[in-house]
Structures are given as C-alpha cells and as structure tokens.
Amino acid sequence: MLKKDTLLNLTGYSAKVGGWEFDTETLEQTWTDEVYRIHEIDYPFEPTVNNGIGFYAGNSRKAIEKAVRHAVECGAPFDLELEFITAKGNHRWVHSIGKALLEDGKVTKVYGSIQDITDQKLADNEVHRLNENLELLVAERTRNLEIAYQELIFHLNEIEQFTYISNHDLQEPLRTISLYSQLLKEEFSDKLGQDGKQYIDFMHNSATRMKAMVKGLFDYSLVGTTGEIKIVDCKMLFESVLSGLQFAINESQAEITICSLPTISCFEAELSMLFQNLLSNAIKFHRPDNRPLIEVSARELETEWLFSVNDNGIGIDEKYAEKIFIIFQRLHNRNEYTGTGIGLAQCKKIVKLHGGRIWVESQVGKGSTFMFTIPKKLSVVNFQHQLSQNIHAPGS
Ligand code: ADP
Q: What one-character DSSP code corresponds to residue 245?
C-alpha cells in the first residue's frame, strides 16, 4: 500500500498539479515535488515568494505580483493562467490558483495549486491558429465566389440583353427579306425563270427558319424569368397545352392518354412550355405508317415527382440520348421533320430551374419515353430573376 504523501505526489505527477503555500510573515514557501518538476529545479533550491515570482515572464510576472499582494493584504483569491521560464530555460504555461488562510481576521498563509497546462495551451493556440487560418480561407473563398457570381450575373445579363436585342432587331430585317422575296416572286414571276424562283424560295425559307430560331433563342433565354413558383394542377395545365396543340393532334390523329397527374409547386408558364415541347415532339416524330399513341403519367417518389411522356414514334439511337438536349442539336434534316433544335434544350433548362433531371429511354423504330423529375421541395437557385429585371426593350 502506498503511503499518503507518496500517493499525493504520484497523483500530482500524473495530473501535473503541484501544491504550494507560504507564510505571510517569513514569505518562505513550501512546494510539493510536482512544483519542483514544473519549475525544472531540484531540492537544494529553497523557494520563497520572491524567487518564485522571479520565474514568471513579462505581463505574467506583473499579474502574479498583484494577485499575491491582494491575497496577502486582503485575502483575495486568484485564478490565473500564466507563462514562465523554467530553471532550464523552457517556456511553460501554468494554471495557478491561490487562496488566503485567515486567523483572527488576519491573513497568515496563502496556499494554492499550480498545474502545467503547456500542452493544452499549445493545442489551444494551434486550434486558434487553425481556426483563424480557416476563417481567412473561408472569407477569401466567399469573396472569390461573390466576385465570380457577380461576373456570372454580369455575363448572363449581357447574353440576355444580346438575345433580347437580337430577337427584337433581327426580326424586322428578316420580315423584310421574307416580304420582298415574296413580292419579287409574285411581281417578276415571268422574268425570273424556274431557277430564279427556286432561289427566291430558298431565301424566303431561310429567312423564315432564322426567324423561328431567333424566336426560339429568345424563348430559351426567358426560361425562369417569367413568374413566381405557384401551386399548379398538372392535369389542368396539360389539358390547356393539349387544346393549343389541337391542330397537330387532329392532323396526325394522335391518341393521347393522360394518367393521373399531381398538383405541384412549379413555375407554371415554364412547366406548360415543357409539356408542350415534349408533347409536340411526341406527335411530330411519329412513324409515317403509325398514328401516334402517347401516354403521359406521373409517379410519386420519396422526394420528387417523376413524369413521363411515352410515344410509339421513330425512337432515338441510344448514342444520341444526351446530345439531343444540347441547343440546335437535331438528328434529322429539316425536310424530314421541321424544327429548330431548341425544344429539348429548353426542356432541360426548365427542369434544371426546378432542380430536377431529364433523360430519355428509347428504342429506334419502337418509340421513346422522356422522363423528368420535379422535386417536391423546390430549392431553386434562380438568378434568372435577377437577370429579367435588367432586360429592357431597346429605346425604353
Ligand atoms: P426540334 O424538335 O426542333 O428538332 P428538339 O430540341 O425538340 O428540336 O429535339 C431535338 C431532336 O431530338 C429532334 O430533332 C429529334 O431528332 C429528337 N427527338 C426529340 N423528341 C423526339 C421523339 N419524341 N422521338 C424521336 N426523336 C425525338
């Protein structure tokens, strides 16, 4: 069994805590073994209040002097974290607690503990330093992101402005080319000859196509700028899209089945455009010998709605499944199927605006299923709204 003082010393050693006391008359101090160890000094050394204080450095020395004086004069306790230099010249941090012992209202002794907290202090300082570095890094990254974001907004604004002006200013000369080419054909028909008339038709068709492309680009640029998120009954929205496509439906004798569709939060005008693009493609890309059979449905998943538009049309080769969502990418020449190649890019932009995904599953000659998701909780990063406010009609 360990003797009491040995046990005390061992406890002090393992906790790096030592005990001390001094007599207020003689100012002679008593230290436990651990206090000697903390000071890195051996026994012949006889501690006093003054030579003890001599180990403390800089402001810590002033602090301990003041604390000891108050303890001796008026019995005030102290609890300080201090730095000192050991007898071997090593830098240490200690936690020093002091209390006064009073007899007949007079302070006769001051006693306390001293604990080596160098490791903890170094670790704290390191954590502090790392935190400061981290904060600086985060602040710098945030600043860079803000700059990049502002630049992005600036460039997108420029593009939006450009698209708006292109649409507005290019439509007029294109209309003029169309009009005068038709007039030329009508009024000088007898002088033009077969080739001349054909050239004028090329001109007229190109101008018409360019008008459609410019308009398509403009519509594309407007995605996300037209309104607010609303609660929308998709079945009603789909039916209104159908009535707008009545001519194409009648002409192709398409049969369209709508399974139950949900009510969701979304940008209404954009969702309507999305339905319209997918549906008009499903009608347009039908096999010549088959009437289009189209089925529209939606399925509730855990965090999102999964919509699908299925057709029995010409299908798409798997290798083009991603390419078709890129603007102006078409798989057919315009004599086979009309179009500008903007519709699916617009669909992708609309789905992304809602934070969803869009893809196609298809087999050539059998049909395609376009699928897209709309999250139930929209977290729309919609800087498009910031853009729309900056678009002004030329001259306005
Ligand atoms: P557009 O319809 O004006 O050509 P889109 O961007 O809507 O442009 O479509 C891009 C291309 O994807 C189309 O040209 C077509 O080749 C293919 N595509 C789109 N939808 C279908 C579909 N339902 N069936 C077969 N091919 C399709």
A: T
